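I am still getting used to backbone structure tokens and would like to learn alongside you. Label the sequence line and the structure token line clearly, so we can match residues to local backbone shapes. Would you write everything just below, so we can both look at the same thing?
***
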Amino acid sequence: MSAVNARAFPPRSEAELRLKQERGQLQVRAAAAFRSLVQQAGLAEAYAATDVVVAADAGFTDQASLLLSLGPTDPPIRLRAGQLAGVQGLAGCGSGELVLPIGGGLGDAPGGAELLAALLQGRALPFDARGEATALHPRRELHTELGLEQIGTGRLLLHRAISENGVVALSQAEGPCPSPYGTLLGPAANALYSCSGAGSIGLSMPGLSLLGPGSPVLVGGALGWVVGAGSGHQPGCRRQASGHARTPGAAAAVSVDLHDLRPEWVRPCFFEGHGSALLVAIAAPVPLINADVARQAAAGPEALEAPVLDLSVPRRVKPSLGAVTYAELLSGTITVRGRSVGCAPSHSPRLAAAAAEALAEALLSGAFPLRLPLVPLSPRPSLLPIEA
């Protein structure tokens, strides 16, 4: 960094930022407010007036699990199979451990997302389990009800909580096409985009560079923690000159305590032909530690782009139909191979904005910990296809 840049953008350490937070002097802005300030006063002045930018997402996911740790019964049971409200769980990880998928729900039984919502609403759900009889665990069957009060420890694990970018999904086939983003109408009658673009976590910090194992994030209104690289992690993806990902890119997995989740921030949904999913609001701080971080956080929708994919092809690699900017997506219409296509978000901008506001308030009050990652996310990609 040149001497001029060093004076205009003095680097900030974690200790400096935490001290300002303790003294009530931390300057926090939502991503949109920071971009607006950059446009009005320039990057250097915006940097001087902002310590932390708050980015947020509120997208749909079925890549998640509910991990429950149940207390002992009398006589004790060693769980080997269990169903909670008809959702089949994985037992055998311990005498009272149960893992339930958030997705599913294509048959008559509800999906795990609906089950989670019911628990957060205070409902008790029927629980049926079978045990493996041993001398210390003689019980073979268990039939009872479980609510939050009967669950000793529970965690929601989002295997792909945060990703750098999203996709624009459409279908070139005739008729409706089910997808994890909603129903696509073909041929190319509508498009759905999964990332909000500027202001999203992944496009505010390319490479998820300010996240690592142990990084705090606000998940579903509760304090959650990054546990490491997430499902589909691709840190070496194609990038723009600015460093922003052109594809979904790096991904982070996040864990949060079940009992701290707030139902208004975690909502179940159902996609016809695909199954259950959760709409989860997640917000993360972007500490402006240097000029490069500030410059990347200031990128607007016209400077960021997402790939357009044809999801009607049931293959691992979907046909690419080019790329569009987030400014085009926000206009409600994109042009794909000369054809005008109406588009809509497959996420909740309103819920993301509310999560960003909640995190900003928590940072200002000192209720949310501010820290830089001890180690970065793994450079090893986790999206390794299985050839068979």
Observations:
- The radius of gyration is 22 Å.
- The chain has a mean pLDDT of 94.
- The longest strand covers residues 275-287.
